[in-house]
Amino acid sequence: MNPIKQPAPALRRDILIALALLATASAATLLPPAYVEAEQRISGVMIGLIVMYYANAVPKKLNPLLMLKDPARYDAQQRFTGQ
Length: 83
Known about the structure:
The protein has about 80 residues and is mainly α.
């Protein structure tokens, strides 16, 4: 089984994103017990930002593959994502 090799900058970026999420969640646990809701909100915002980032990045990465296989499907995907 061959692991998928990512370019070094992409791998570095993904590791930094994971570390930022873990650091933020760890820091939020240090808040006093009265701020439990703030801890949950901070974690939710971080996860939401990651979902937004990857939801924006994935269609851009799939474009070359769709363009080679099926140009009509590529055009439909471009219209759907508004690019």
